[in-house]
Amino acid sequence: MSLKIIEVPVLGQMLRLNCPEDQHDVLRQAAKILDQRIFEMKERTGILNIEKVLSIVALNLSYELIQAEQKKQLIEDIVSARIQQLDSSLDGILAAKTDEAIKY
């Protein structure tokens, strides 16, 4: 996959980044979301120091990522448990069918 240079606006500045061409739209969307979150955080907190605002936004994003990973793990655990239940049920059904076939 070849990388192409893309320019995305963040904090009123254009950032030039190398990115696979098929991911340009997602990167633009990510930059737009980041810009919006920074703006909202500045408005909500009244903090003017951009480094502090960026730190808070980064911390919030990290927290949300951890929550999403935990939720994903919980869902994977539930699905795995259900698959094991189904597998056990199928084993029981197959065993009953086999016992039934042997009787005849």
UniProtKB/TrEMBL annotation:
Keywords: Cell cycle, Cell division, Coiled coil, Cytoplasm, Septation. It comes from the Bacteria. GO terms for biological process: cell division. Its main location: cytoplasm. InterPro entries: Cell_div_ZapA-like, Cell_div_ZapA-like_sf, Cell_div_ZapA_N. Signal peptide: none annotated. It is found in: Cytoplasm. Transmembrane segments: none annotated. Belongs to the ZapA family. Type 1 subfamily. Activator of cell division through the inhibition of FtsZ GTPase activity, therefore promoting FtsZ assembly into bundles of protofilaments necessary for the formation of the division Z ring. It is recruited early at mid-cell but it is not essential for cell division. Homodimer. Interacts with FtsZ. This is Cell division protein ZapA. It comes from Seminibacterium arietis.
